[in-house]
Structure formats: structure tokens, C-alpha cells
Design a protein that fits this description.
The protein has 376 residues and is of the alpha+beta class. The chain has two domains: 16-242, Hypothetical protein, domain 2 (Endonuclease III, domain 1, Orthogonal Bundle); 253-371, Nucleoside Triphosphate Pyrophosphohydrolase, CATH 3.90.79.10. The protein has 16 helices and seven strands. The strands form two sheets. Strands 1, 4, 5 and 6 form a four-stranded mixed beta sheet that branches. A three-stranded antiparallel beta sheet has the order 3-2-7. A hairpin with a 2-residue loop joins strand 5 (319-323) and strand 6. Helix 2 packs antiparallel against helix 8. The protein binds iron/sulfur cluster (SF4). Iron/sulfur cluster (SF4) binds next to helix 9 and helix 13.
């Protein structure tokens, strides 16, 4: 059966329908993988996790890089590996040690999953392919493919937001995300048909990451320097910078909470570990109300105070913090007590600033002049 000519790849046309998929028989034409690899050989970024094929190190770097910038991850990555040099060391660690090491990196569920997965590896051994990695807690298709390509040389293409952007532009996919996600992933995996990609899957994956991070950037792609400029359909159509398109997100919902800074005479602050499973689950924090969509009245908030009979004073200001799809609005009350409850966890403000997640550190800043804390 002849393929309809309207789906055949043509320079300047994607051959894709409005859903981002080819409805006919001919696959879209992929640019040559070896052109990208040659560019990578000259322009690869120097990053702390590059050059290693140790799956544990690659896994840690990929988990840290989720939702966190390369610049922020760099120093923390080295520190993490010095403390937990392999999966066995991470499996042996207590959660409190890992939580302390992860403080400030955000998205704490990542650390929880890392810990559980390290324990699974200690019991069952290190996976050897993407399917094996995918079966571990917290490892999605992107991370599994990245580890498999880089550490095991499996011919798979990890698809994150950068790679989606490059694919949308290369093939001029105008269908919006997230609906077009599957079609973009299929376009990315189409590169595995090329022998040059199959010879160097780890380098190909990292070359795609670098292309997305340095040339095919979100706002102003540097197409003149791109190894695929002659093949890029988004560039030929003059729409590259507008891709990928996105379905507008619903507004981020606010959550309100009130927290309590109870200080002992020596300045130590009462802390508590947050309940498992919720936002910042398992992390240390200042005690407080639950977080909810409506603001708290003073009387109902004070019912959650960790100690009655002390003089709780509201501090001026609100700590605002974005957590996943929520914006936290946190207020703070402060008091001093002759002694803290028995067996309570407590730290001096400066130590707390190192151990607490970012949302709680912002709350501590509201305390600044009261305890000589000027921010972390
Ligand atoms: S030519 Fe431009 S838009 Fe196309 S892949 Fe390269 S940098 Fe991105």
C-alpha cells in the first residue's frame, strides 16, 4: 500500500497532524545522529558527573537534577557522594542523615525514593537496564532511560523537558504539551534506528541535554550554531522559538499555615518531624497547623501551638514558598519558655538553618532580629 504523500517528510513541513503524530505510514525523517555527536565531541559541557559510567553516580546526579539547576547541584553532588559513596552506604544510612544532607535541595520526596531504592538495590542488586531501573521506587521513564543509556549503553533516549523542546522544534510539532508528550517521546526514540546513535547511546543522550541547555534554549535558540540547523523544520518555518506550545496551566493554589517558634532560654528552637506522606514529609520543621487553602484565624491557629500558657506573639511578614504546584503562605508566632517539652528535638537557629528545608528557612528569616538570625 502506498503511503499518502501528505505525510511524507518535506523540508519545511513536519508531516505531523495537529496531535503531533504522523497519521500515515512514513515516519518523519530524523536528522543525522552523527552530526550531533560530532558537535558534542567539540562542545560537551564539563560537569561533575560526566565521564563516569557508574550507575549509582549517574542515578544520584539525575535525581538531584530533577527540578534543580546544574549550578545548584554541582557542589551538593560532590558532598553527597563523599558522605554516601555507593548504594550500600546510602542503604545503611538512617533517613535523618539523608534528610539532613538533602536539606535545601527541595522536592524531598526524591530523597525518600532514593533511600528506598538504595535499600532495594542492597537487597536485590543493581539493575542492568532501563526496565530494571524503572521498577525501583521513584524512578520514572526519563531517569531509567538516562541511567541505562549512560551507564549500560542501552540504545534508549531519555526524554525530559529539554529533549521535548528540541524534538518539538526539529519536527515542528505545534500540538501543545502535555498532550504532545507521547508523540515527542516517539520522535526521540526514532533516533535509535541510526547506527551512530546505537554506537554511543550515552553520549547521544548527553549531547541532546547539552543541545537543549546551550543552543536550543527556551527563549532564543542559537540556530546558527546548531549542528541540525539545516534539518530543523521549526527553524525553516520560522516558529522554533515559539515551540513547544503548552496548554495553559490552571492557577497555582495557595496553602496557608501558621507555625510556632518556641525558644528555650539558651536560644534553641523546638522542632518536629513532619508527618510522612504529606508535603515536606519526614523533614524537620517548626511545629504548626496543617496547610490548607483558607487562611487561619488567630484563635484556631493557636489551638495547634506546641505549648499553652506562654506569650505567643505574631511576627510581621509572611514566608512565601513554591512547592510543586502549590504556593505556601506561612505566618509565624514566637514565644520563649523556661524549658522545652521533654525529649523534644531542638536546635539553635543557625544549626536549624542548615537542617531545615527551604520553606522553613524562610520562616526562620522572619525571626531574624529576635534571635540574631539573619538568614541562611
Ligand atoms: S536549529 Fe535551532 S530550533 Fe532547531 S534544533 Fe537547532 S537550535 Fe533548536
Amino acid at each position: 500500500m502506498m503511503a499518502p504523500s501528505s505525510c511524507a517528510p518535506r523540508r519545511g513541513g513536519s508531516g505531523l497532524d495537529s496531535a503531533g503524530a504522523c497519521p500515515f505510514l512514513l515516519p518523519p525523517m530524523h536528522p543525522p545522529a552523527d552530526a550531533l555527536l560530532a558537535w558534542y565531541d567539540r562542545h560537551a559541557r564539563s560537569l561533575p558527573w560526566r565521564g563516569s559510567r557508574d550507575p549509582y553516580r549517574i542515578w544520584v546526579s539525575e535525581v538531584m537534577l530533577q527540578q534543580t539547576t546544574v549550578a545548584a547541584v554541582g557542589p551538593r553532588y560532590a558532598r553527597f557522594l563523599a558522605r554516601f559513596p555507593d548504594a550500600a552506604a546510602l542503604a545503611r544510612a538512617e533517613w535523618a542523615e539523608l534528610a539532613e544532607e538533602w536539606a535545601g535541595l527541595g522536592y524531598y520526596a526524591r530523597a525518600r525514593h532514593l533511600h528506598r531504592a538504595a535499600r532495594a538495590i542492597a537487597a536485590e542488586g543493581m539493575p542492568r537496564n532501563a526496565a530494571g531501573w524503572r521498577a525501583l521506587p521513584g524512578i520514572g521513564p526519563y531517569t531509567a532511560a538516562a541511567i541505562a543509556a549512560i551507564a549500560h549503553g542501552e540504545a534508549v533516549v531519555p526524554v525530559d523537558g529539554n529533549v521535548e523542546r528540541v524534538m518539538a522544534r526539529l519536527f515542528a510539532v505545534e500540538a501543545p504539551l502535555p498532550g504532545a508528550r507521547r508523540a515527542l517521546a516517539e520522535l526521540a526514540s526514532g533516533f535509535a534506528a541510526q547506527p551512530a546513535m546505537r554506537a554511543r547511546p550515552g553520549d547521544f543522550a548527553q549531547a541532546l541535554f547539552d543541545l537543549g541547555a546551550t543552543l536550543c534554549t527556551p527563549r532564543a535558540p542559537a540556530c546558527a550554531l546548531c549542528p541540525w540547523r539545516e534539518d530543523c523544520r521549526g527553524r525553516a518555518k520560522g516558529i522554533a522559538a515559539t515551540l513547544p506550545r503548552r496548554t495553559p496551566k490552571p492557577a497555582r493554589g495557595a496553602l496557608h499555615g501558621v507555625h510556632f517558634a518556641l525558644a528555650a532560654p539558651d536560644g534553641r528552637l523546638l522542632l518536629e518531624r513532619r508527618p510522612e506522606g504529606g508535603l515536606l514529609g519526614g523533614m524537620l520543621g517548626l511545629p504548626g497547623t496543617p496547610w490548607r487553602p483558607t487562611p487561619w484565624e488567630e484563635a484556631e491557629a493557636l489551638a495547634h501551638a506546641p505549648m499553652a500558657g506562654v506569650n505567643w506573639r505574631p511576627l510581621p511578614g509572611t514566608a512565601r514558598h513554591i512547592l510543586t504546584h502549590r504556593e505556601l503562605h506561612l505566618r509565624l508566632y514566637a514565644a520563649t519558655a523556661a524549658r522545652l517539652p521533654p525529649r523534644a528535638e531542638a536546635l539553635a537557629p543557625r544549626e536549624a538553618a542548615r537542617a531545615l528545608p527551604a520553606a522553613m528557612r524562610k520562616l526562620l528569616r522572619l525571626l531574624g532580629p529576635q534571635v540574631g538570625f539573619t538568614g541562611a
